[in-house]
Amino acid sequence: MNEKDLKSRLNAELSNVTWTVRDSNAVRRRVNQGGMKKMKHSFVAIFAMILLLVFMATAAAAAISEDFNAWLYQIWPDAALKLMPVNMSCEDSGIRMEVISAVVNRDEMYVTFSLQDLEGDRIDKDTNVVMDANVEFFAGEGGGVVFDTPDPLYAEDGNKYIFAEHITLQGDLRMGVSQKNMRLMIERLENSRMSHIDLIPLYNEYAGQAQAMPVPASAYIYGAHVDAATAARITDGFTTEETIFYSMDPEDRGPVPQGMRVLDSAAGPELQLADHVYLSGIGMVDGTLRVQIHSVDMDRVDGSSQQYPADAYVYMEGLDGSFSRYSEKDALPDGITALVWGTRKPDGFGWEERWEEYIFTVPENEQVGDQYLAADITNLEDPIEGSWEVEIPVRLIREAK
């Protein structure tokens, strides 16, 4: 089925509008009191008003469903037509969750649902909502559960996000397609805001003042190239090729090379990029490009998918989408891609301040600025506590054989 046929079918299924007249007696009384002549004009006026309302609502619904259909086709081209309508909802803490559609078989489940803030703007187009979705299934001897979450669709009309989850079971695990209901539950919503910072203009402005200093004694390796055997052990055998990894295990990190240097933060710009996060240095050190991030007052966040109130990630990528040439093992100091150091909080569960230095290689035929150099910073906001739970009858969403 081509895209045109798909959109036509989805539009037919999703654009239906049902109208209910709540007080038809009031209309009837008004018509009877007006006499035959007035009744004719009143009826025509009322009928015209109803037609206008239906037209306006249908146009709005069609626009929303067009966006929804295009989004579905983009993320799930093979599964979009398998989805079955659910239309079940619940509310808690001023947040409404509506399960729109789903389909399930023994190995996987697709589900779409929306979240809408009924009381304010805690959920908006700039908010990334992280959730704990739990779908009940029958467990086998062993295996794994993989959640694939595409970027959500923002519906400006209604201030709601539409989410999609593709849940795949691996090994001997099987979905409970023979049980009566399947439960979709969200225990809390973690709001976080993403800031994307283009670092090339900052490199052009501040690289000239960069100075180097010895690596602090408390520093440890945060990212480094490893051999195939170590990579296979860390990833449970999912890779056998040399790769870059991030590990907190001292045995995997190894010692910091003697004589290695980092950017001197005292000579840096200390430019605030986001809450808790500053750029403390950027420039060249010993033939490699360095970006130094300074994070302050990082109390550990309990029960969160993100450990600290701010998380920064710096990356370099070619205009062609390639990034491996900016982390060439032989051009990096002992293959190291990042270092971390700082001062822990007295309780040990956080940082008073922390520095992270990212290290990149720049090919001889390129200049800094011929590629993307950016920082993505995620700031946690106060979580929305609540419980959103829907029991979906399996008979409504079981995939037809």
Shape: elongated
SSE ordering? HHHEEEEEEEEEEHEEHEHEEEEEEEEEH
Strand share of the residues?
35-45%
Q: Low-confidence runs (pLDDT<50, min 5 residues)?
A: 1-64
Sheet with the most strands: spatial strand order: 13-12-19-20-17-16-15
Largest sheet: 7 strands, antiparallel
Gap from first CA to last CA: 19 Å
Fraction of helical residues: 10-25%
Structural class: alpha+beta
Radius of gyration: 28 Å
Give a structural overview.
This protein has 401 residues and is of the alpha+beta class. The chain folds into three domains: 3-74; 80-193 and 384-397, Immunoglobulin-like; 196-380, no CATH class. It has helices spanning 3-14, 24-33, 35-75, 200-206, 228-234, 250-253, 394-397, and strands at residues 84-92, 95-104, 108-117, 127-135, 137-138, 143-148, 153-155, 160-171, 174-175, 181-198, 212-214, 220-226, 243-246, 261-263, 271-274, 277-285, 288-299, 310-318, 336-344, 350-360, 371-380, 384-393. A seven-stranded antiparallel beta sheet has the order 13-12-19-20-17-16-15. A hairpin with a 3-residue loop joins β2 and β3 (108-117). α2 (24-33) packs antiparallel against α3 (35-75). The chain is elongated and about 65 Å long. Residues 1-64 have low confidence and may be disordered.
